[in-house]
Write a structure and sequence with these properties.
By secondary structure, the first copy, chain A, is mainly alpha-helical. Chain A has two domains: 63 residues, Homeodomain-like (Arc Repressor Mutant, subunit A); 127 residues, Tetracycline Repressor, domain 2 (Orthogonal Bundle). Chain A is built from ten helices and no strands. In chain A, helix 2 packs across helix 7. The longest helix of chain A is centred in the C-terminal third of the chain and has 24 residues. Chain A is elongated and about 55 Å long. Chains A and B meet through helix 6, helix 8, helix 9 and helix 10 of A and helix 6, helix 8, helix 9 and helix 10 of B.
Chain lengths: 198, 198
């Protein structure tokens, strides 16, 4: 296979061959160029070279273009908690979830940077991002409870894990090194959180 | 003064004498009775016995009825961080902010319970609450940085403080004891967070 085909199969090209990827890139470009509010679904479809009908086959609305991968992240992190060794502490199980986040998103540094810039440009997108993080905290709390962790500790550990993810993700996105590692960044923040003292 | 007048002056009566308080109680009652989406500003004003014009003198829209006290909470917590002794650690300064939250909200247990139930009933209100908490974390981060705390530590400690506030506030709201103390609840959660180990 040519390098181009391999890149295509990996879904990592500047212009992904699939319609969903092209729509995502088009949406981010337009949100940054003219603003989220001023961009329509028709604009995004046109930029991506597809019809509005194709857009709606992939996404419910222009906001969801940037969020329809959320379930993959959440499911991976929840599975990591559920599948952690039976004798792993709650914090160790959350550490495994943070590693999983790195595996899911770690090879998307360039995309993550662009997406973060687009989210930061719109209050509505920022709110949607907050909702995503709150849901993630709820799902991780449930996963910890499924391991027999008490409700209060489960909530605290899950919230701590999500804080580590959010702060570590931000550090990773703003890290100028192209080979910056997301798992390392979020694990580092978790260690710093656990080391906090009064 | 009669007990009634004293209650009135303290703003703690079931029906607060001021229009803003009456509108707030009317809004919560209606959101719980018929749902946030199904309630209009006209409904709230009518229930409170005032005109829609009076409503808009106090609140920008029906969502803000439940949030226009947010600045008071944020300013009190930020001031506590800023005014903490110069040699207080970042975590100690955040502890002072948590104490301040108890002073601002601690005598509003019954109201806090009703408001929490109303917020929980609507996705839009939940999102607004998430935004409020994110802003609070940002303001506390800035206040810590103003004390000379480095950016990364400031962010971590502020996020930890907001987690302690959120989880402690929830525990307080769901505590059946009428004399439950908010400051104690949030301080307790902060201690539990700091005690987490891998």
């Amino acid at each position: 296979m040519s390098p181009c085909v391999i890149t295509t199969l990996l879904g990592m090209g500047r212009w992904e061959p699939d319609a969903a990827g092209r729509l995502r890139e088009a949406a981010i470009a337009l949100y940054l160029e003219r603003g989220y509010e001023q961009t329509t679904v028709a604009d995004i479809a046109e930029r991506a070279g597809v019809t509005a009908r194709t857009f709606f086959r992939h996404f419910a609305d222009k906001r969801e273009v940037l969020f329809n991968g959320s379930e993959v992240l959440e499911e991976s992190m929840v599975s990591a908690v559920t599948d952690a060794p039976a004798d792993a502490s709650p914090v160790a199980a959350i550490g495994a979830a943070l590693d999983a986040s790195g595996e899911v998103l770690g090879d998307r540094h360039a995309y993550a940077r662009q997406r973060s810039a687009a989210v930061a440009s719109s209050v509505e997108l920022q709110e949607r991002e907050l909702v995503k993080m709150a849901r993630l905290a709820g799902a991780l709390t449930d996963a910890l409870r499924g391991r027999g962790v008490g409700e209060i500790e489960a909530r605290l550990v899950a919230e701590t894990g999500v804080t580590a993810f959010r702060v570590g993700f931000e550090r990773w996105v703003t890290d100028p090194a192209d080979d910056a590692d997301l798992s390392t960044a979020v694990r580092q923040v978790l260690q710093e959180l656990l080391a906090l003292r009064g």
